[in-house]
């Protein structure tokens, strides 16, 4: 049977649905999972540090600021034959020390060590070691590493981790897309119409908050990135704002300390699948594995249950909803996508945000988008000036 794709939220009210078979994604090795969406401009080149003396294997040390603090991320690639606990840790420690020497004003240095032969960018095979050293821990982290008490170091328990079931999503979220039969589509149209009019959760889906309250939910997808995430978290702390972070399980696996930072800061956890794959194209068992493994990982790291799901690419189906419901998840979409991942320019992100600001709005941002990071303080300021309070998505379901 031919399938129907529904562009929901903004396009739903027109009842205009594109009718074509559901696309079958090509099966390719996992690599850089978020290249380009239509209209995307090249991301700006980030400044880098030069380490003196040079450290073998350090490919680059990128630096980024949120206007208040600077953070560095060192990418280290070493031949598989040289991968050992002692070697990888030594290179990571040297990278931290070298970055702080090169820029004494840094607030944090994060390091990711990969096998050189299998490195395919952030989103490909996992690192073999990650390390995070905030300035406050700089004097003590080496002694804590020696005592095996340092809590911002990660190495995988199993170095041969499974490949994703299919191809990771190749575009960031744009508009929610429902994949299903005509009868399922009709049901979704009704649910979305009511959601737009009334707000709140309907059928375990959240498209919009209460339209009578001047609140907007901040949501960030594809979390955490080792360079951007600390800067986003710092900005939200300074603005006294809380948000919902939709977390890719494989990212949380490699950077567990960021997930703990998130919860300690009072933010909300969300599930964005383990491998960032398009769920409607998987079997029920694969969908369940993607969601359940991420739930279990996040709960193990934080002690908190996971309540929300955002499907990668905004693609979902009745099967996806059924599995999510069985795991106690509410599926969350959005009303406003400023397009920060397209790198349209900071002013464009801000203008789109202001134009679509409305009571009960759900804002889609990414923690690894330079324009979104730069625009975030002004987005929050614009919301405050118009009398809106920024809240996590959970505030819309209470």
Automatic annotation (TrEMBL):
Keywords: Hydrolase, Metal-binding, Signal. Residues 214-391 form the NodB homology domain. Residues 21-41 are annotated as: Disordered. Residues 1-22 form the signal peptide. Gene3D superfamilies: Glycoside hydrolase/deacetylase. Residues 30-41 have a biased composition (Low complexity). InterPro entries: Glyco_hydro/deAcase_b/a-brl, NODB_dom, Polysacc_deacetylase_ArnD. This is NodB homology domain-containing protein.
């Amino acid at each position: 049977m031919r399938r129907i794709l529904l562009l929901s939220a903004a396009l739903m009210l027109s009842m205009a649905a594109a009718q074509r078979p559901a696309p079958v994604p090509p099966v390719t090795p996992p690599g850089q999972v978020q290249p380009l969406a239509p209209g995307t401009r090249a991301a700006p080149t980030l400044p880098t540090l030069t380490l003196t003396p040079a450290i073998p294997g350090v490919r680059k040390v990128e630096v980024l600021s949120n206007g208040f603090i600077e953070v560095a991320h060192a990418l280290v690639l070493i031949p598989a034959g040289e991968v050992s606990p002692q070697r990888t840790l030594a290179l990571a420690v040297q990278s931290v020390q070298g970055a702080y020497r090169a820029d004494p004003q840094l607030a944090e240095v994060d390091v990711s060590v990969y096998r050189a032969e299998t490195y395919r960018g952030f989103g490909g095979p996992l690192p073999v070691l990650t390390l995070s050293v905030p300035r406050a821990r700089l004097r003590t982290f080496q002694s804590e590493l020696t005592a095996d008490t340092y809590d911002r170091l990660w190495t995988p328990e199993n170095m041969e981790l499974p490949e994703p079931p299919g191809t990771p999503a190749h575009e960031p979220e744009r508009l929610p897309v429902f994949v299903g039969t005509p009868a399922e589509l009709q049901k979704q149209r009704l649910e979305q119409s009511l959601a737009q009019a009334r707000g709140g959760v309907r059928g375990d889906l959240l498209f919009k908050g209460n339209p009578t309250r001047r609140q907007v939910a901040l949501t960030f997808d594809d979390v955490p990135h080792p360079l951007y995430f600390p800067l986003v978290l710092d900005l939200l702390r300074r603005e006294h704002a809380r948000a919902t972070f939709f977390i890719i399980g494989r990212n949380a696996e490699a950077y567990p300390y960021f997930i703990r930072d998130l919860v300690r800061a009072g933010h909300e956890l969300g599930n964005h699948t383990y491998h960032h794959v398009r769920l409607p194209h998987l079997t029920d068992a694969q969908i369940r594995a993607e969601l359940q493994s991420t739930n279990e990982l996040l709960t193990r790291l934080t002690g908190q249950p996971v309540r929300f799901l955002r499907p990668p690419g905004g693609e979902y189906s009745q099967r996806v909803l059924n599995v999510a419901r069985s795991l106690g998840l509410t599926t969350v979409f959005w009303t406003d996508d400023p397009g920060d991942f397209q790198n349209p320019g900071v002013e464009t992100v801000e203008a789109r945000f202001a134009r679509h600001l409305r009571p009960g709005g759900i804002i889609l941002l990414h923690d690894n988008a330079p324009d979104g990071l730069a625009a975030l303080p002004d987005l929050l300021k614009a919301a405050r000036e118009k009398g809106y309070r920024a809240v996590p998505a959970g505030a819309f379901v209470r």
